Amino acid sequence: MSKTYIPARLRQEVATDAQFRCGYCHTTQHISGQLLVIDHLIPEACGGLTVRENLWLACRLCNEFKGTRTEAIDPLTNDSVPLFNPRTQSWEVHFTWSEDGTEIIGLTAIGRATVEALKMNNDVIVAARSLWVQAGLHPPVD
Ligand SMILES: [Zn+2]
Q: What's the gap in Å between 125 CA and the centre of ligand 1?
């Protein structure tokens, strides 16, 4: 989570860019009932600036598991690869939903590494997604 003050206007611009959903797991603010946080794509600890181009929305879980990381290990190849960048990369290229809509499947090295590093299929979120699927609210459609 950001340590730098982020003006309300910039926060709103980033939220609009991100369609009010987590750039990683696509959990939406209105379904989760949780305020999403501003994620520094390049972490502040690594010199990332608090400018629109370096900001996106993330849920608290993805943001916490991401921490100051910029890379992670692809579990298939054991190669270190960059984490997914929701501002510059297409979610659909790197991820897809499992058939039942409760789990995110990484399609690329970046996708697989990001799913693993951010624990995007943790028990808590998978249980919530299961309820959202039953309610016809998930997976999100663009
Ligand atoms: Zn998330």
A: 9
